[in-house]
Design a protein that fits this description.
With 106 residues, the protein is of the alpha+beta class. Helix content is 39%, strand content 23%. A 4-stranded mixed beta sheet has the order 1-2-4-3.
Length: 106
C-alpha cells in the first residue's frame, strides 16, 4: 500500500548503485520479505518504458529472492532509464544496492 511505501521511504536503510537504482529496506516483523519496484515519470514519460523496466527488475528479483533476508519491506526505486541496459549490468546494479542496504544474505 502507499502507506507501507511511505514508511519504508522514511525509515528504511538506504543502498544505492551509483545513480540508476536505489533500495530502501526496513524490518517488517513478517516471516517473509516484500518488495515493490517504483519507476517514476521522471525516468520516462512513456508508460510502456516504465512498465518494461519494472517487469525486468521484478524478474531479476525473482531470480535472487532466496538471497534476500526474510522479514523486510523493500522499495526499489529507479532513477534513470535503464530499459536498454544488458541484463548482467542491471543485475549488478541491483546486487550492489542490496549489498549496501545490508539485506543480502551473501
Amino acid at each position: 500500500s502507499a502507506a507501507d511505501i511511505a514508511r519504508v521511504s522514511k525509515r528504511g536503510a538506504y543502498g544505492g548503485s551509483g545513480g540508476a537504482v536505489s533500495v530502501k529496506a526496513v524490518a517488517s516483523g513478517r516471516p517473509a520479505a516484500r518488495a515493490v519496484v517504483v519507476v517514476g515519470k521522471k525516468v520516462s514519460k512513456r508508460a510502456v518504458v516504465r512498465n518494461r523496466i519494472r517487469r525486468r527488475l521484478i524478474e531479476l528479483l525473482r531470480d535472487r529472492w532466496e538471497t534476500v533476508e526474510p522479514g523486510y519491506d523493500i522499495v526499489i526505486s529507479v532513477h534513470a532509464d535503464i530499459s536498454e541496459l544488458p541484463t548482467a549490468e542491471l543485475m549488478g546494479h541491483l546486487a550492489k544496492a542490496f549489498t549496501r542496504a545490508h539485506i543480502d544474505k551473501r
